[in-house]
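Q: Hi! First time doing this. I have a protein sequence and I read that you can turn it into a structure. Is that right? Here it is:
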Amino acid sequence: MESFFQLKQNNTSVKTEVVAGISSFLATAYIIVVNPTVLSQAGMPFSGVLTATVLVSFFSSLMMGLYARNPILVAPGMGLNAFFTYSAVLGLGVTWQVALGAVFWSGIVFLLLSVLNVRTLIVQAIPKQLRYAIAAGIGLFISLIGLANARFIVANPATIIGIGPMTPALLTFLAGLLLTAVLLVRNVKGGILLGILFTTLAAYPIGRWWGTDLEPLITWQGMFSAPDFSLLLQLDLANSLQLAVIPVIFAFVFTDMFDSLSTFVGLAEAANLLDAHGEPRHVKRSLTTDAVATTLAGLVGSSPGTAYVESAVGIEAGGRTGLTAVVGGLLFLPFLFLAPLLSMVPPIATAPALVLVGAFMVRPVVKIDWFQLDDAIPAFLAMILIPFTYSITQGIVWGFLSWTVLKLVTGKRKEISAGLWVIDLFALSALFLL
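A: Yes, that's right. Below is the predicted 3D structure, encoded as structure tokens:
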């Protein structure tokens, strides 16, 4: 294990990697319930999607750890599942079987791009200034997700957003946030995981005594559920290649590509997971893993898989090798039978970890040359639009396009690489398809 994952070379240990894997899993595990909730609205059986979600998360995260050896979990992506349900199935009127076929074919396209090294070249073509901005933007995005999960930030018709009412649940979140911050400041090992556990335990009496903010954390409806393999190989490969479905395939391709690329680049920059040339390490293998995840998702009955930004929780907990992803991936497997147990970890328990991880991920922002406006403005747009639009894809699309335009009008065409022109083409296509 030491030599395979190169633990000493990465200044980590088995204990640290295990804690990091658990932390990433706890921050990511919500997808086991949320993904079936979204896709069931497309007419798919909830239990079948839950089983598919666990299978995709388990196998893909395991592949990321053992093959790509990066501490990043892979699971069905939020946003991608919404596009699957609301745009493809309910919007365009295609059946969910055809939509699964579109997921499969988009995975095949990903795989070809990865094997032919096209995606790696695209990663290397992203300007450094935009990489720093993407990392910071993802950090702000993660913090926003945490604050929204805790209902600290809520919708407000008068001001768009505002602070939520001071409820027992919000007070519990604030206590968990403060404790987790103290643990991190004092360099306590596993501080993020301890914060999650503390907030979970602190939330228990809320559901029992008040009941208005959280459901009781432990119910007696049963802790076990049998896996449902009814969606296995239910995709419609032939009809998903019809001309009317091609835009759906391309939309999956572009959205998943930008989400995975930006997440991978952002995490690599924020955690210094770089090779000797300053590029994200094992980039080709990682992107190939992402492609396999999407292909697998179509086969087992889920929306596309992608690298998870919440992996930053485990990375900040010390995860630096593929062992983190292996541990996180293995933790998904028992939930083929134990999915009801996830109700024991409420959103407010992982919210403090998400908020604080944002503080670590914005570190690269100091590397941006804010006095060079043709660099600073695209970087700024990428950074703020990721959280403001609630979309990693939109942030990086406008970052890339504004970078290209400003370099052209300032006579710096040489700074626009051939790979960046390809990215711009994809970006423009994404704007029209999404």
